[in-house]
User: Which sequence fits this backbone?
């Protein structure tokens, strides 16, 4: 089981992510914005962070940069969620230090496949 | 019974009725199969060739446990396109329900010159609370999907829903929940949206939510009272009268003139 911090401002999508990840046996800490994501990551020290790009208070890019600049959290992999058709977001996200992108709409199988390299080795 | 085998071994079951152009393609929802379109196909077949297919993972098409196909909605979309291509359906009207309504929109966006008009029933919109139903099984949901008296057609649909594979249900429902967080493309086709007033899965969008739906050259939203998720079965006369009027509309007719009527009216000459 891995611990995953999920930041997504859309409540329905956040619930969906929690459902899919918990069903796969992971522990999930879900928050609605980037600032709370940074707090949660520093507190939980998760195995993976999933960030939506566009969120209130602090967007996913800034949250990712903060985490990657902090020596305590820089090693934690970050995956961005991006709306389809927003190709420029992919480049910006990778420049902010993210390991991977998942484009919405995603299906449960796709999501689990994309996060597998980061969480499957966890006991 | 008809079926086509795609080159990668995916079997697609479909049924067809009637003659006449343009053909009408019916796409089902997160549960069930082509079967609940039968009455609608019979109505459409009076003037059109009517197709209803079982999407991959559902009904008589390849199911999750039958092949090497990981079920993904992208594959479902591709399968629909290949189905149309193999059957030579190059200009058509599409009617979709739930998952099928999202696929209908995708077809309309992707093939603006081939899709003549679009009818979506119970189209999930951004904010529709689909995720909460992921913890349920299709069988557990059946009691909430219909209101009013049970007809023979509703019982058939209930039986079909009970046989929906859980994986297909969850995969397609989850994908549908995540569908809308993207820039909206306008639809070039006339678009009729229909909702059941008491649908617990996809309640009718309020005015604010409607403003977030994709724009269209012509768009019209109607709500069938005292109906839940299957208005075509709960109020078949009302629905099929509307379907007939929708199918008969000329491309330049005003779609906002379409109305719901409870009873057929005698025409007075």
Assistant:
């Amino acid at each position: 089981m891995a611990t995953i911090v999920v930041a997504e401002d859309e409540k329905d999508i956040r619930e969906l992510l929690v459902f899919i990840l918990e069903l796969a046996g992971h522990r999930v800490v879900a928050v609605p914005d980037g600032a709370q994501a940074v707090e949660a990551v520093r507190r939980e020290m998760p195995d993976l962070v999933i960030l939506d790009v566009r969120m209130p208070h602090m967007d996913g890019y800034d949250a990712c940069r903060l985490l990657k600049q902090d020596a305590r959290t820089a090693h934690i992999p970050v995956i961005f969620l991006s709306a389809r058709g927003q190709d420029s977001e992919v480049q910006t996200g990778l420049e902010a230090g993210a390991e991977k992108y998942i484009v919405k709409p995603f299906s449960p199988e796709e999501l689990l496949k994309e996060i597998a390299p980061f969480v499957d080795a966890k006991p | 019974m008809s079926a086509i085998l795609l080159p990668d071994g995916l079997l697609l079951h479909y049924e067809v009725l009637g003659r006449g152009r343009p053909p009408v393609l019916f796409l089902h929802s997160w549960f069930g199969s082509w079967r609940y379109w039968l009455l609608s196909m019979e109505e459409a077949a009076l003037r059109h060739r009517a197709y209803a297919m079982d999407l991959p993972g559902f009904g008589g098409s390849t199911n999750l446990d039958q092949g090497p196909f990981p079920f993904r909605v992208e594959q479902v979309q591709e399968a629909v396109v290949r189905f149309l291509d193999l059957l030579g359906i190059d200009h058509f009207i599409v009617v979709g329900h739930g998952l099928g309504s999202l696929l209908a929109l995708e077809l309309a966006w992707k093939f603006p010159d081939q899709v003549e008009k679009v009818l979506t029933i119970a189209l999930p919109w951004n904010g529709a609370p689909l995720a909460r139903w992921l913890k349920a099984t299709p069988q557990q949901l059946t009691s909430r999907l219909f209101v009013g008296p049970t007809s023979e057609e509703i019982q058939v649909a209930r039986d079909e829903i009970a046989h929906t594979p859980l994986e297909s249900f969850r995969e397609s429902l989850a994908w549908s929940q995540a569908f809308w967080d993207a820039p909206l493309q306008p639809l070039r086709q006339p678009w009729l949206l229909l909702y059941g007033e008491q649908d617990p899965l996809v309640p009718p969008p309020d005015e604010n939510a409607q403003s977030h739906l994709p724009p269209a050259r012509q768009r019209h939203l109607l709500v069938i009272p005292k109906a839940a998720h299957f208005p075509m079965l709960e109020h078949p006369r009302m629905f099929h009268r509307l379907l007939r009027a929708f199918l008969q509309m000329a491309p330049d007719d005003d779609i906002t003139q379409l109305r719901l009527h409870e009873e057929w009216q005698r025409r007075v000459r």
In short: Chain A touches chain B at residues 10, 12-13, 15-16, 19-20, 83-86, 104-110 (CB under 8 Å).
